[in-house]
Amino acid sequence: MRFPLFVILAVAVRPSVLEAQLTARLSAGATMGTSLVADAILYDDVVALKTSVAPTIAIGLGYPISATHKLLGELRIASATLTGSGSAGANDLGALRTIEFSVMAEGPLPYHLRFQVGGGAIKYSPARAAGAFLDDAPIKPMVTAGLAWTKSLRPGLELQVGGRWGLHEFTTKTLERRGYSLAQRVHRLGITLGVERAW
Asked: Rounded distance, CA 87 to CA 6, Å?
């Protein structure tokens, strides 16, 4: 039985893709970020909002696009304490959870490093609807990039230490209604330790 010519050509041109493997990644670590709001006028007061360092978990799935490169989809969940400050001092505003979803290209670098670059969205989920989050809990587009150092533990299993940077603009309907029309650029930096399994 003869195979169609295009099948033979596809196998000959892209053997590396066929040899690549699906991967699943589980990581834990911490995320820190710059201020969500700086010097906003809210309720006749100058207000700033900042989050604490947030414990973070990350789950990722990788799909091979070549023998050395993959497309990585990742979900990150972090929970921090939100602090608001104004003329009366600083107040603990409760927990603020963030949920990030990103799609990235990942590829090799020297010294067991891998690069990641892509984008996605971040969802803010406050413990209670109050202050800047009175009217909504926004979802914002973001760009992201990172580096991961890998070490093989055994065939099909790797240890990974990762660093991730993200950038998005933050505002809410409450802030806009109060006249704070400029979106604040928020930088986020996460560090994680995890394992990746290949099939």
From this structure: 71
Using CA of residue 89, residue 90, residue 94, residue 99, what is the dihedral sign? positive
Entry pTM: 0.84
Residues of the domain holding 70: 5-198
pLDDT digits (tens, 9 = 90+) for 41-64: 665 565 788 999 999 999 999 999
pLDDT digits (tens, 9 = 90+) for 57-93: 999 999 999 989 999 999 999 999 999 887 667 788 8
Domain count, the chain: 1
Q: Cα torsion for 168, 75, 118, 170, to the nearest 10°?
A: -10
Are 123 and 136 within 8 A, CB to CB? Answer: no
d(CA 80, CA 24): 26
